[in-house]
Amino acid sequence: MPYKRTSELPKGVKDHLPAHAQEIWREVFNKAWHEYANPSKRDNPNDSQDEVAAKVAWSVVEKSYKKVGDKWVKRG
Questions:
Q1: Distance between CA 62 and CA 7 in Å, rounded?
Q2: Within 10 A of 46 (CB to CB), how many other CB atoms are there?
Q3: Which of 41, 53, 57, 58 to pair with 3, CA 20 to 30 A apart?
Q4: Which residues contact residue 61 at a Cβ distance below 8 angstroms, ignoring those fewer than 6 apart?
């Protein structure tokens, strides 16, 4: 389901990503959630809409952030 606020994000996102990365994750998740509503648009139609949107969101976050030890830090 789409998220209106970062405070609503899943625990694994909210508790580990910096604020800016959470904003990226939320925006991308929401767009992907709508884009992949139709199972025929998914690589694996058996994956849920939420699973696909989360995978897309993480892939975009990982372009700007990397995990160093237990923390996510901005690439650059």
A1: 20
A2: 7
A3: 41
A4: 17, 21, 24, 25, 28, 72
Residue 60: count other Cβ atoms within 10 Å of its Cβ.
Answer: 18
21 Cβ contact partners less than 8 Å away, ≥ 6 residues apart: 61, 64, 65, 72
Write the DSSP symbol of residue 71: E
**Residues in the chain, pLDDT under 50:** none
Q: Are 33 and 49 in contact (CB under 8 A)?
A: yes
CATH architecture entry for 11-74: Orthogonal Bundle (1.10)
Question: Which pTM does this prediction carry?
Answer: 0.93
Q: How far apart are the C-alpha atoms of 76 and 49, rounded to whole Å?
A: 32
